[in-house]
Specification:
Elements: H1 12-22, H2 29-41, H3 48-54, E1 59-61, E2 64-66, E3 73-74, E4 77-78, H4 80-88, E5 89-93, E6 97-102, E7 107-112, H5 122-137, E8 143-148, H6 168-186, E9 191-196, E10 200-201, H7 203-209, E11 213-217, E12 224-225, H8 237-247, H9 249-258, H10 264-270, E13 275-277, H11 282-294, H12 298-317, H13 320-331, H14 334-351
Parallel strand pairs: 7-8, 8-9, 9-11, 10-12, 11-13
Antiparallel strand pairs: 1-2, 3-4, 5-6, 6-7
The protein binds octanoyl-coenzyme A.
Length: about 350
């Protein structure tokens, strides 16, 4: 039940796009699906090949905005320097995500901007996946930095309201979107860096764990970890695998059992993040890290990434439908719904 303005009714078109996007089982097929999606829905101005060549265009697609590096004209004449600048930088904005892409470096910065806490709702995940897919299709984009536009919070993880008081069908649709986000990010060909500028519990931690490198702001008020058990729920096997691949089995076992949230210094200590920096150094450090990773021959780096991650990806891909069924039957149990209610009340009490 959504009562707040910022959690208002989901636009019908977003649902449509979500259904289309998430109806495919293989995430590789999403590329094809997006082609037809864009071909079908972008009824104006632009075809996909043009979209790919020229960067993003400002086309509204059912509430999404595909931004274009458009040439600007002054007094009816096109200004060459503006065209060049526009070709080198483009940006794409939807309501919950904005992307700045610098073609001169091949690096895009994705800003999550879904107040109050960048929780991963179905709408958010859909926009996230579409933005990611656009970047993945653009061969000139080689690196992605993910950060938050909100103060204090990177992402609060999965939107609990998508799991509380919802029908089994809605829960299933939501879970497919969570899987999709993870599959896309974990197997991305781009170099991915999480610039973690705030708290990052549960699904927020998972999102940063899917990146190649994590840099967190060194502020002891921020925390990161897979705290699912504190909500009375269980991190799925692929959450566990992603963390174990990063920090090892024993640390993961203890962290998951206790639902541990770590300060940045503690997270660095166990290898959950790779670096901690002062807030004002976050983006410059992310850019330097990116440059270092991009200096490695791309094919060798990508094959290495695939070699390291493919078994984990394949594990979910081969059990995707069963994983959805498990989630739905688990999350809709009365006892689990009760735990979520208690946790939501705790969040409200903490605020009061
Ligand atoms: N989902 C939905 N709403 C949320 C969430 C969330 N994850 N987190 C916070 N909110 C809401 C709060 O209820 C509050 O709502 P309102 O304004 O209506 O009262 C609003 O966002 C602001 O929250 P805070 O006042 O708490 O904001 P702060 O800036 O003080 O704190 C934090 C930010 C640290 C992120 C804090 O909100 C927090 O700890 N949130 C909870 C985070 C959490 O525990 N997330 C776990 C989600 S579950 C998950 O990601 C994996 C599930 C795997 C499922 C597997 C099942 C099989």
């Amino acid at each position: 039940m959504r009562s707040k303005g910022h959690r208002g009714a989901r636009p019908r078109c977003t649902r449509t796009i979500a259904s289309l996007l998430l109806s495919v089982n293989s995430f590789h097929n999403v590329r094809l699906d997006l082609n037809s999606l864009f071909a079908g829905l972008v009824s104006c101005h632009v075809s996909l090949p043009h979209f790919k060549q020229s960067g993003f265009r400002n086309v509204s697609v059912g509430g999404f905005f595909l931004s274009q590096a458009s040439s600007s004209s002054r007094h009816g004449r096109v200004c060459a320097s503006t065209v060049l600048a526009a070709q080198q930088r483009s940006n794409s904005t939807s309501s919950k995500i904005s992307v700045d892409f610098d073609q001169s470096t091949g690096v895009a910065v994705m800003h999550m901007k879904s107040p109050p806490v960048n929780s991963l709702s179905l709408d958010f995940l859909t926009e996230f996946c579409i933005s990611l897919e656009k970047l993945e299709m653009d061969k000139s984009c080689r690196g992605l930095i993910i950060t938050s536009s909100l103060p204090k919070v990177f992402s609060a993880g999965l939107d609990i309201l998508e799991m509380y008081g919802k029908s089994p069908e809605s829960c299933g649709e939501f879970w497919k979107a969570v899987q999709e986000m993870w599959l896309k990010l974990y197997s991305s060909n781009m170099v991915t860096v999480a610039a973690i500028n705030g708290s990052s519990p549960a699904g927020g931690c998972l999102m940063s764990l899917t990146c190649d490198y994590r840099i967190m702001v060194d502020n002891p008020r921020y925390s990161i970890g897979l705290n699912e058990t504190q909500l009375g729920i269980v991190a799925p096997f692929w959450f566990k695998d992603t963390m174990a691949n990063t920090v090892g089995h024993r640390v993961t076992e203890m962290a998951l059992a206790l639902g541990m949230l770590y300060s940045p210094a503690e997270a660095l200590n166990i290898g959950l993040v790779d670096q901690i920096v002062p807030e004002d150094k976050l983006m410059s450090t992310a850019e330097q890290t990116m440059a270092k990773w991009l200096a490695i021959p791309a094919h060798a780096r990508q094959l290495t990434k695939s070699m390291m991650r493919k078994p984990t990806v394949d594990r979910l891909t081969s059990k995707r439908e069963a994983d959805v069924q498990n989630f739905v039957s688990f999350i809709t149990k009365d006892a689990i719904q009760n735990s979520l209610r208690v946790y939501l009340e705790m969040l409200k009490r903490k605020k009061a």
